[in-house]
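Minutes, project check-in

Agenda point 3 was the complex the collaborators sent over. CS summarized: two entities, 253 residues total, and the question is how they sit relative to each other. Sequences were read into the notes so everyone works from the same version.
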Amino acid sequence: MELEKIIQVLDCQPLTQPLEGGKSFEKAFGSDLMSDVLAFIHDDETVLLTGLTNQQVIRTAEMIDLKLILFVRGKIPSEEIIGLAESNRITLLSTKASMFEAAGILFENGMRGIDQT
Amino acid sequence: MKFEYTITTQNFTTAGEASSNTKKTLKLLGIDSKIIRRAAIMAYEAEMNIAIHSRGGKIQLEIEAHRITIVAEDQGPGIADIDLAMKEGYSTASHEIREMGFGAGMGLPNMKRCADSFDISSTPGGKTRVVMTLNL
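CS then shared the predicted structure for the full assembly.
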């Protein structure tokens, strides 16, 4: 699922620049627990859905090379945190949808969960 | 090649910088990306543990031709029951720490899972030292 499509179906507000268009993501993982993110995501083409907007979310993504974080429930991190993401080439989006709604809409559009291994 | 990073307790603005530097160093050295990912998780969980649970400490990174060693050592207060601390889901973290997305009781198990060798020693009231290696 291409980045542009994710933005469209979830009516996302892009938070970082530049938007690296054309990137495709096949899997998504939703969590507010960063150690679970570190433990369960094995593929860096995975989208992270989270309601947490602190610096550690960006650090966590940096550690496992995640390229896209989607903040749910209309959450928007501070400018400083957005800057940290940009310096690590991590794209940030925000949607007003809840975690459940966002996951459902992405699933409906072909996105799938992570491998259960 | 050796590097040492000081970790300050309860400073969640700087927490993660040592792991970020560790990752960048390994990348510059051309280490395999899968190994870097494991090393980054080990360093980051250790760094967060020091920032969250201890009075402060340090992380040492040593890179040799055949292995990477990460040593995390803090200034206490030590772990009362190491077996319990190693259990997935067990945590003594405060509500505030949990709100930051940590304290789910996965830190030490995550470190052990990523490492080729993992050794933890601690004295109640004293220091905790974790030595982890990755074979290259």
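Noted in discussion: Chain B is about 35% helix and 25% strand.
Follow-up: revisit at the next meeting once the mutant set is ready.
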